[in-house]
């Protein structure tokens, strides 16, 4: 006998569906990466904003009453300007009848501009020790401050006590502030004032090493010898009194232009300047005071005053001042102004990194408050939804379960049940056996959609009366349903999935609303049959609370968006009138439900018609199913967007149902993860107890809603014990699925049908509890 050997080296060309699936799979990875990058960017923006506000990495410790045994006496008793020459500390005092006005903690958008205006009106310069985080938030004020002729110094980036910090943290505080200055005003500076510092006699054994290290990098540390104590808000007269030097001495005088309510400082400053001028005082900056002190001491201009370890131009990236003290040589001063001799022109990487920092902070300043506002709106919407569901679901239950409630004359005529099936060998027998027990007369049509696992043969071998099996080429679920509708013998068509089982009375309950001639379709009560696993229990809670409670609400509002594929009934004429099940979307059930609303048919929910379906048994299958559902829902809403401007029943759905679906099923879930991110952020960086209590309060509200939904459906409450874990894991996954779907929709992607793996474990309703 001759045999034919297939030629080697030749491969069969891939089909169109295979090529499309390959393209879709190739596109999914970049979309997932894009979604993760967006989440990473958002997290980075939040952390940056929190760092600027000292919520992230903040340190409120302030050292006091420490020993000063290691601090040289000539430093403790010296002047308020401390620099280092070849490692040796050198103190300078402000010359007599001279005042160096210094301002700490700014810039502030309210008080700093007012102080600048007073200084300009009185032709007086000031030295502002700026907090880097504030500089990056208000760069325009710093630019104006420098242009006006004032001098700036570093007050760290987050206003921390450096004596508690590591060397690396100290360098970051200095470098980041230098970058902020570079981005805001195009300069860096060699002046430094430590937060919580005062006079030189407050230097202790912990802060002294910090000053020495910074001095070795070219920084001049500035203290005060006259403190206005304006932060105490003692009154204008007291501020002026306390800021006045004694016995015509020169002084480095401390005021604050930020860090609290500074109206008294503003009110006192102008009067103080006039008073001091009347006494013969002159005003200068710290650099101006240094220059004047050096001239009095006979030091030549431009002579090096520091150790000289830095480089000209200021190395802001490492926090090195990059200057030789506060010298007045050719490089001193960004614009050659001796009153700004501590300034260095920022160039190269320092300048561009600084501008990038300021730009990033600007993004954070707009993004985080905007998100906070949006999340507040979302939070209100979520709570409003819970309230609506509880109120309307209760009203729906009371109305439909009244003794005298009736849809009309009982519907007893036979109906057709269409079962689309593709490779359902594990489930089809249980499905058909459950239908065989129906107490309502039915015709069963199984549409085998090109199965390759013997589904058709199993259905035919059961020998159940009134079962017809129709074979078609694989064309998808919508085509299978349409084929079943065309072959239906009766005017009412019940549609179900091939992995679903009905109770004996399900069909009878499901078709009763058709006694009302205005009803075109009925949604049944889908139940998770395989609920004894963790994933199954999570989905069971979602079905009872998220789906069925929602359907009660939508039923009363007459804008039911979806008839579940597991259990739904339709008037055959209504289905044919809207063109049957459309293949335009992946959510054919949502698509046809909206189409029937637009044609003027009423869609209702029948809670007593129960179907038990096999939910996905793994996270991968669950992701696949919900991804398709979410994306298909978006497709359906976009397809029917014209209903927003329609009149009549179509317009009613468009202006009532569609906004509710968009708000509650797309917008709110998309932004809901941000609420959780903010909650985690608050727990870690702000107030753990308050944030935890807020999260528990929301969880309690959800538990109340879920418990009420379980009560209405007469479900066992024990599954609610899984709800806290569901909120932590399952809900986050559903949010990510929806975000993934949104990214796919926004990038123009297309999905294909996916076949879920079935086990056939949902055998009979009685065994599904």
UniProtKB/TrEMBL annotation:
GO molecular function: glycosyltransferase activity; hydrolase activity, acting on carbon-nitrogen (but not peptide) bonds
BP GO terms, sorted: carbohydrate metabolic process
Region (Disordered) location: 1-22, 297-320
Stored InterPro entries: Glyco_hydro/deAcase_b/a-brl, NODB_dom, Nucleotide-diphossugar_trans
A Pfam family per the record: Polysacc_deac_1
Domain NodB homology: 97-284
PROSITE patterns, A to Z: NODB (PS51677)
Keyword rRNA processing: no
Family recorded in the similarity comment: Belongs to the glycosyltransferase 2 family.
Name of this protein: Glycosyltransferase
């Amino acid at each position: 006998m001759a045999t034919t050997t297939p030629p080697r080296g030749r491969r069969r060309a891939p089909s169109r569906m295979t090529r499309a699936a390959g393209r879709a799979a190739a596109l999914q990875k970049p979309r997932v990466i894009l979604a993760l990058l967006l989440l990473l960017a958002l997290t980075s923006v939040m952390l940056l904003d929190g760092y600027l506000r000292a919520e992230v990495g903040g340190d409120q410790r302030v050292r006091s009453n420490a020993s000063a045994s290691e601090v040289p006496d000539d430093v403790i008793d010296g002047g308020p300007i401390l620099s280092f020459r070849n490692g040796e500390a050198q103190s300078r005092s402000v010359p007599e009848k001279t005042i160096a006005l210094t301002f700490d903690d700014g810039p502030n958008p309210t008080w700093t501009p007012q102080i600048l205006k007073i200084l300009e009106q009185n032709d007086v310069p000031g030295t502002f020790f700026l907090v880097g985080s504030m500089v990056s938030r208000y760069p325009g004020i710093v630019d104006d401050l420098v242009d006006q002729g004032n001098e700036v110094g570093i007050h760290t980036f987050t206003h921390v006590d450096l004596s508690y910090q590591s060397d690396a943290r100290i360098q970051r505080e200095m470098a980041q502030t230098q970058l902020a200055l570079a981005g805001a005003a195009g300069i860096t500076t060699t002046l430094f004032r430590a937060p919580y510092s005062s006079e030189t006699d407050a230097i202790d054994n912990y802060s002294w090493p910090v000053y020495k290290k910074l001095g070795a990098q070219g920084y001049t540390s500035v203290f005060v010898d006259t403190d206005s104590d304006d932060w105490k808000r003692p009154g204008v007269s007291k501020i002026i009194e306390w800021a006045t030097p004694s016995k015509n001495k020169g002084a480095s005088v401390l005021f604050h232009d930020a860090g609290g309510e500074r109206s008294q400082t503003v009110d006192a400053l102008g009067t103080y300047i006039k008073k001091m001028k009347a006494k013969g005082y002159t005003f200068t900056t710290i650099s101006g005071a240094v220059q004047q002190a050096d001239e009095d001491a006979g030091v030549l201009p431009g002579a090096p005053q520091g150790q000289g370890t830095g480089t000209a131009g200021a190395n802001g990236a490492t926090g090195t001042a990059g200057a030789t003290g506060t010298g007045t040589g050719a490089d001193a001063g960004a614009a050659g102004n001796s009153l700004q001799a501590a300034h260095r022109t920022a160039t190269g990487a320092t300048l561009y990194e600084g501008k990038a920092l300021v730009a990033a902070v600007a993004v954070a300043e707009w993004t985080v408050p905007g998100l906070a506002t949006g999340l507040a709106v979302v939070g209100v919407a979520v709570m409003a939804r819970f309230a609506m569901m509880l109120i309307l679901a209760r009203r729906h239950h009371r109305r439909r379960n009244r003794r005298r409630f009736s849809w009309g004359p009982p519907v007893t005529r036979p109906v057709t049940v269409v079962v689309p099936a593709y490779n359902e060998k594990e489930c089809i027998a249980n499905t058909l056996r459950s239908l065989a027990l129906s107490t309502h007369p039915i015709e069963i049509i199984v549409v085998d959609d090109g199965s390759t696992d013997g589904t058709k043969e199993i259905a035919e071998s059961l020998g159940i009366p009134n079962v017809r099996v129709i074979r078609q080429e694989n064309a998808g679920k919508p085509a299978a349903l349409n084929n079943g509708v065309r072959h239906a013998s009766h005017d009412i068509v019940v549609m179900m999935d091939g992995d679903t089982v009905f109770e004996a009375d399900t069909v009878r309950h499901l078709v009763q609303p058709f006694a009302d001639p205005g009803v075109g379709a009925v949604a049944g009560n889908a139940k998770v049959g395989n609920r004894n696993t963790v994933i199954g229990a999570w989905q069971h809670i979602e079905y009872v609370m998220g789906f069925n409670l929602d359907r009660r609400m939508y039923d009363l509002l007459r804008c039911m968006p979806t008839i579940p594929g597991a259990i739904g009934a339709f008037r055959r004429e209504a289905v044919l009138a809207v063109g049957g099940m459309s293949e335009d979307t992946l959510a054919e059930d949502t698509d046809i439900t909206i189409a029937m609303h637009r044609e003027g048919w009423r869609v209702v929910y029948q809670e007593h018609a129960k179907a038990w379906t096999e939910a996905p048994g793994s996270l991968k299958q669950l992701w696949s199913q919900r991804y398709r559902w979410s994306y298909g829902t978006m497709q359906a809403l976009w397809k029917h967007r014209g209903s927003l401007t329609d009149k009549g029943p179509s317009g009613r759905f468009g202006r009532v149902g569609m906004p509710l679906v968009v708000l509650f099923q797309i917008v709110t879930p998309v932004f809901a993860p941000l609420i959780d991110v903010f909650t985690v952020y608050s727990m870690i960086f702000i107030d753990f107890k308050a944030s935890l209590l807020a999260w528990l309060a929301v969880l309690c509200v959800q538990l109340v809603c879920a418990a009420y939904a379980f009560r209405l459906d007469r479900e066992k409450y024990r599954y609610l014990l899984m709800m806290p874990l569901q909120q932590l894991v399952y809900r986050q996954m559903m949010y990510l699925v929806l975000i993934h779907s949104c990214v796919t929709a926004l990038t123009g992607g297309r999905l294909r049908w996916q076949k879920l793996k079935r086990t056939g474990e949902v055998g009979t309703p009685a065994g599904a509890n």
